[in-house]
Design brief:
Length: about 400
């Protein structure tokens, strides 16, 4: 088996080698998000696109009550007792276990299966490698066992798995994008009712470029949950003092937040201000895209970064360095940290003629100042979850 074969071929070959039968092979992609960060769990708007990097799963029923799971990226083989789905000490297996657990909770029988998984979404980069795997697993189970779930229901199930089984209180954006992505399209998703609209990516001479800090700080998951609860604290304040029918920070006007600076703990105020501003900014940014005003769009990306840095406080020195370093580059329309934060990538809109030179300058400065190697990905959009080959 050549390691240069596409990953869907590699997982299929590995499955056949270990289990001597043909599997179903499914992939589901990672995502980028142009704007609308930390708004999904506040019922706001986001603007993600699926990328051409994905998680892959080859699977088939095992015919017993146990399944054997393997990964091309990690050494362990995990044996799973399907009559007793619990968390495992092998981290990657939990993303699959959580999906099985949630499907069972929906009353869907999930006969034991063997599988081989792999992925090329860089882990810890902010491109949602875990949501890609979760989405691949539920999409595969839906095909294999005819669960009758829509993509919409699969996204919600994957989110519940991450929330309840993994323990990260993430929003819906990552799995939604992984399941609904389309080549050359961004998705404007209303996270309140999951209504969405595709927009063609029309960036002219500009490209979406990710610069990867190469760091992932360990506080990422716990700080994420803390931010979520700070937003809830803010919401409760506005429900109590203004309107018990407010369902999320989405319902609170920015002016109402501003008027309560002195009545709220500073951190709660800052979080609420960021979220309410970001929801408005995302809507305005979609208008910029529709009008072809990339300059205005780019400025909003910088504004988002400042909010994430100072008000929401989910950035880190490495991300700030990479955004500050491109701010005065005329070839860069906008830049900001992307995803949950505390490491991972910045997303940038860069003129195509300038990318190579910028990468060289930035890599040198980043190495000298931060002591890390700079990664770079040119974003190529991709389709959402799909069957790669039928057994
Ligand atoms: C992570 C979460 C998403 C979203 C982003 C921030 O990627 O999984 O639900 O909240 O952070 O926008």
């Amino acid at each position: 088996m050549s390691s240069f074969a596409p990953l869907y071929v590699q997982v299929e070959n590995s499955f056949q080698h270990h289990f001597s039968r043909k599997p179903l092979v499914v992939s589901s992609p990672g995502r980028v998000n142009l704007i609308g960060e930390h708004t999904d769990y506040n019922d706001g708007f986001v603007l993600p696109a699926a990328v051409d990097k994905a998680a892959y799963i080859a699977l088939a029923p095992s015919g017993s009550t146990q399944g054997k799971w393997m990964s091309l990226d990690f050494p362990e083989t995990v044996t799973v007792d399907f009559q007793n789905i619990t968390t495992n000490s092998v981290r990657w297996a939990n993303y699959i276990l959580g999906i099985v657990d949630q499907a069972q909770k929906l009353g869907k029988p999930i006969p034991a299966f063997d599988c081989v998984v792999a992925g090329d979404v860089p882990m810890g980069s902010g491109m949602s490698s875990s949501a890609a795997l979760e989405s691949a697993v539920i999409f595969a189970l839906n095909e294999l066992y005819d669960l009758g779930l829509s993509r919409w229901e699969m996204a919600l199930l994957a989110q519940r798995s991450e929330n309840e089984f993994i323990g990260v209180k993430c929003g819906i954006m990552d799995m939604f994008a992984s399941l609904h992505g389309k080549v050359n399209q961004v998705i404007r998703l209303d996270c309140r009712d999951l209504s969405f609209e595709y927009f063609p990516i029309e960036l002219g001479a500009y490209k979406i470029v990710l610069f990867d800090t190469g760091v992932k700080h360990s506080l990422a998951d716990s700080a994420y949950n803390t931010r979520r609860s700070e937003c809830e604290t803010g919401l409760h304040f506005f429900q109590k003092h203004y309107n018990p029918n407010f369902k999320a920070l989405r319902d609170v006007p920015i002016t109402m937040v501003q008027a309560n600076r002195s009545r709220l703990p500073k951190e709660v105020f800052d979080r609420c201000l960021y979220v309410t501003e970001e929801i408005q900014r995302t809507l305005a940014a979609c208008e910029d895209l529709k009008n072809g005003d990339l300059t205005a769009f780019g400025l909003k990306m910088y504004a988002t970064h400042e909010g994430l840095r100072h008000l929401y406080q989910v950035s880190c020195p490495e991300l700030d360095f990479l955004v500050d370093a491109v701010r005065d580059e005329s070839s860069v329309l906008g830049a900001r940290m992307m995803g949950g934060g505390f490491g991972g990538c910045t997303i940038n809109l860069v003129h195509e003629d300038a990318i190579e030179g910028l990468q060289e300058r930035l890599a040198k400065a980043y190495q000298e100042t931060m002591g890390h190697k700079l990664g770079m990905y040119m974003v190529v959009t991709g389709d959402g979850a799909k069957v790669q080959a039928l057994s």
